[in-house]
Amino acid sequence: MSNNFPISFLRITEENEKQRIDNFLKKKFKKTPKSIIYKILRTGQVRINKMRVKPKYKLKIGDHIRIPPLKKTYQIKKGIPPNSKLYSLLSDNILYEDDCLLVLNKPSGLAVHSGSGIKFGVIEYLRILKNINTYFDLVHRLDRETSGVLIIAKKRSVLRDLHKQLRERKIIKKYLALVHGQWPKHLTCISAPLLKVISKYDHVVTINHIHGKTSKTFFKIQEIYDNNTLMLITPKTGRTHQIRAHAKYANHPIVLDKKYGKANLDNIINNNLSINRILLHSTSVNFFHPIKQEFINVIAPLDIAFKKVLNNLKKMSRIQEI
User: Fold this and answer.
1) By C-alpha distance, which of 271, 257, 261 is closest to 309?
2) In the chain, at which end, N or C, are there fewer CB atoms within 10 A of the end residue's CB?
3) Rounded to whole angstroms, how far apart are CA atoms 124 and 83?
4) CA–CA separation, 122 vs 114, rounded Å?
5) Is residue 5 classed as helix, strand or coil in its secondary structure?
6) Would you identify the CATH topology of the domain 8-77?
7) In what order do the strands lie in the sheet with 51-52?
8) What is the distance between the alpha carbons of residues 23 and 29, in angstroms, rounded to a whole number?
């Protein structure tokens, strides 16, 4: 598989008339280092009307420009953050991979993709780690603060099939969450409709609202501590912040959830632990592999921070029978 962009052919219009060719190329290929621009000009790889030109050449209407293949590494190299530990972390947290898809145990704090002031997310890091020219696209999303199973397609046909499974609610995702308080044993399902709104601080929040979208989440108690409960959660629908909003609706918000939680209770449980992540983890996913034609079940283990809180609770609490 080639690591190059294809040869480009451009014809100059009035919009770019009298512009220097070096400035034109720097503007068009903003992420390409200037040294590369001047190299392909100096070595005659850029041709205008089939002729070599100097960087100071001024473009004319009708000029026909041939631009050589630029390596894709040139396009992103300048913006790669020097974080070899993160590359290693992602590599060590690949749970499943074949030619069609990849399943990752996403670390908490890492966005799934770039955007909104975030230069690098999982997708961008994977392109650097695996192969810059490889197709990667998200089958679903996880909040930046949430850890756990993330499915990434390597082929568009596989992406379409898995999206279809999501729409038909055939992909089963399960989460582990530590919530405040002792969750009532009779509360096994919440169906409160959810509406996504933008707060005055431009933050997305999801609220229970009569005009919200139908939302359903199943809750199952795993362990009960003195002042907290470990829950196994299965969302039937996939609304923004659905689990977090439904936990808040039940008055048992997720521990260390800065958006929907209770800061005073978080401070108590986080005393001397210094954990800086929401205690919500996508623990497993079950789906039908579009190519292998078989069901795949992937389990993502908890990270050290989540385990640290649970171990601390076990030492301090009297675990109750479910």
Assistant:
1) 271
2) N
3) 13
4) 8
5) coil
6) 3.10.290
7) 8-11, 64-67, 47-48, 51-52
8) 10
Spatial contact of 97 and 103, defined as CB atoms under 8 Å apart: yes
Mean predicted confidence (pLDDT) in 222-241: 94
Which of 22, 63, 143, 257 is catalytic? The answer is 143
The CATH number given to 84-316 is 3.30.2350.10
Query: What DSSP letter does each residue of 22-78 carry, written as one string?
Result: HHHHHHHTTTS-HHHHHHHHHTT-SEETTEE--TTPBP-TT-EEEEPPPBHHHHHHT
Half-sphere exposure of 110 (CA within 13 A, CB side): 23
Q: Where are the domains of the chain?
A: 8-77, 84-316
pLDDT of residue 303: 93
- The DSSP 8-state label assigned to residue 321 in this structure reads P
CB 245 within 8 A of CB 194: yes
The 10s digit of each residue's pLDDT in 162-201 is 999 999 999 999 999 999 999 999 999 999 999 888 765 5
Return d(Cα 149, Cα 106) in angstroms, integer. 6
A 10 A CB-CB count for 20 gives: 14
**Backbone φ, ψ for residue 142 (5° rounding):** -130, 140
pLDDT(314) > 80: yes
> Any residues with CB less than 8 A from the CB of 237 and at least 6 apart, and which?
169, 213, 214, 215, 216, 217
Residue 143 falls in the annotated catalytic set: yes
